[in-house]
């Protein structure tokens, strides 16, 4: 047998092994078990007055997760992480489906059936979408204004040693106070809830970003600044065409944390005094002990955060092609 034939056989074996690995794995096994659970009789539907809703919405969610998982499997760099994440999600769904929907073995007052939870997105999609739009408007305005102003002011302060030595200690002290502490007070004293939410989001993001930008600017390598001065660039050009772009990877790397902080602050503010929004939706339903819809709202907020972080990662790959 020639060497080329041996190589072909090895490639064929590797290809077959790769296909088997993509088909036979723990996430797919758990996915099948969840589907088999639907064939079992439901004690939840028989014993609970509220009954069990149609599983169609839950099945759509499972299919969407499975489609994303299959796509990730063909990307070798992400395959292992995708298997671990999806296996964990499916394991939780399997336990939830079997012990609640099928066995009715967990406290029904606090742990509703997954079919009922995901059916909320069919029943209340208009309310959820309106709340999403309201929250995203406040989040994007507050986050963007805080980031832009913090980066510009932080760069200016970090450039001046005198300003840095005077302002940095104050900023360091203020930035350690969580925005959630003064959120109720801000909501109380501001004229409208919208202005209060924007102000709280602004403060929750501004101080940390401002302090980080001061540090980034102060520790830019001297050779970079000296090279700019040799080219006879103005201070404005050095700050806005060299230092800020140079620090852009750090700024974008911090965006996922800022997104989570801003959304947490916004949700807390909405749960205190809002009349719309994702946090308002959860608060009202918790007040009425409607845990089915409240859990759906919490899941929706988690999905929104995940998608926003995905957009941030895409933006980083597209607009920032360097790292240090």
Task: Describe the structure in brief.
The chain contains 15 helices and no strands.
Detailed description of the structure:
The protein contains 15 helices and no strands. The chain is mainly alpha-helical. It folds into two domains: 3-121, no CATH class; 125-319, Orthogonal Bundle (MetI-like fold). Helix 9 packs antiparallel against helix 10 and helix 13 runs antiparallel to helix 15 (291-319). The two termini are 51 Å apart. The model is unreliable at 6-13 (pLDDT under 50).
- Give the helices and strands as they follow along the chain: HHHHHHHHHHHHHHH
CATH class of the largest domain: Mainly Alpha
Strand pairing plus helix content: what structural class?
A: mainly alpha
Sequence stretches where pLDDT stays below 50 over 5 or more residues: 6-13
- Named at the architecture level, the CATH assignment of the largest domain is Orthogonal Bundle
The fraction of residues in strands falls at under 5%
Number of structurally distinct domains: 2
CATH superfamily of the largest domain: MetI-like
């Amino acid at each position: 047998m020639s060497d080329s034939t041996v190589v072909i056989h090895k490639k064929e074996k590797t290809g077959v092994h790769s296909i088997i690995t993509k088909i036979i794995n723990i996430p797919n096994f758990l996915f099948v078990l969840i589907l088999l659970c639907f064939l079992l009789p439901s004690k939840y539907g028989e014993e609970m007055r509220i009954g069990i809703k149609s599983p169609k919405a839950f099945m759509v969610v499972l299919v969407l997760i499975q489609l994303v998982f299959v796509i990730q499997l063909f990307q070798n760099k992400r395959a292992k992480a995708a298997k671990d994440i999806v296996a964990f999600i499916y394991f939780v769904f399997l336990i939830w489906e079997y012990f609640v929907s099928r066995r009715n073995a967990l406290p029904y007052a606090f742990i509703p059936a997954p079919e009922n939870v995901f059916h909320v997105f069919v029943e209340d999609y208009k309310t959820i979408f309106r709340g999403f739009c309201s929250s995203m408007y406040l989040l994007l305005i507050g986050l963007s204004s805080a980031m832009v102003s913090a980066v510009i002011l932080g760069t200016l302060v970090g450039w001046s040693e005198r300003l840095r030595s005077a302002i940095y200690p104050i900023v360091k002290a203020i930035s350690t106070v969580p925005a959630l502490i003064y959120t109720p007070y801000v909501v109380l004293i501001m004229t409208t809830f919208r202005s209060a939410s924007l102000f709280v989001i602004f403060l929750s993001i501004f101080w940390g970003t401002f302090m980080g930008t001061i540090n980034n600017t102060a520790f830019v390598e001297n050779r970079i600044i000296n090279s700019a001065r040799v080219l006879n660039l103005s201070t404005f050009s050095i700050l806005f065409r060299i230092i800020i772009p140079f620090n852009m990877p750090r700024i974008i790397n911090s965006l996922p944390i800022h997104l989570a902080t801003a959304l947490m602050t916004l949700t807390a503010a909405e749960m205190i005094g809002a009349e719309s929004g994702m946090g308002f939706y959860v608060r009202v339903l918790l007040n009425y002990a409607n845990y089915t819809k409240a859990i759906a709202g919490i899941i929706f907020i988690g999905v929104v955060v995940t998608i926003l972080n995905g957009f941030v990662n895409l933006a980083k790959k597209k607009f920032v092609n360097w790292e240090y």
